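quick one before i forget lol
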Amino acid sequence: MVTRMMAAGAALALALWLLLLPVEVRGAGPPPIQDGEFTFLLPAGRKQCFYQSAPANASLETEYQVIGGAGLDVDFTLESPQGVLLVSESRKADGVHTVEPTEAGDYRLCFDNSFSTISEKLIFFELIFDSLQDDEEVEGWAEAVEPEEMLDVKMEDIKESIETMRTRLERSIQMLTLLRAFEARDRNLQEGNLERVNFWSAVNMAVLLLVAVLQVCTLKRFFQDKRPVPT
């Protein structure tokens, strides 16, 4: 009985020791940086900045559009993680800029509406990354398959087809996003024009009615003054 208890205790101690051993996690590391898009409202006379982390030796593409507000323009600047001014634009409605290769760190994107004292701006911008890590991931899965000579189709052809398809799908998503931004800008512009047309139409109608009433009153008074006085 004592021997069984000692054996059970030893087994329990061994199990606890195995559970407490440090476990190595393979492939652990910082999560990949994802492409992103954002739409925000920039008040009049204000400046707003955004920070985006970027890996080293990658490609960063920045696209922005002013889709709402009077003038449809804004000031835009892009700075590197070292504080170097890469892009500076004034009173632009849209823009596309590419940084290649990137530096590891936080890039600063600023939108400035200080020149406008009345009108706020609705701004859409998108960040697109093209990192070399994606190519390494595509090449990594090929190690788990059979050798090339045992396949009917070469692995290089398969990898090339997959890479081409991935590039085209990403470009399609980017184009659809830009088309949505163009559509939103055109819709806001048409709605603004419709409001102005309705307002001035109402003003013109009110003026016409006022002129008509004044003319009628003036004619009445004129004919009343010409009427003979009874004796």
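fyi Residues 31-135 form a domain with the Jelly Rolls fold (CATH 2.60.120.380).
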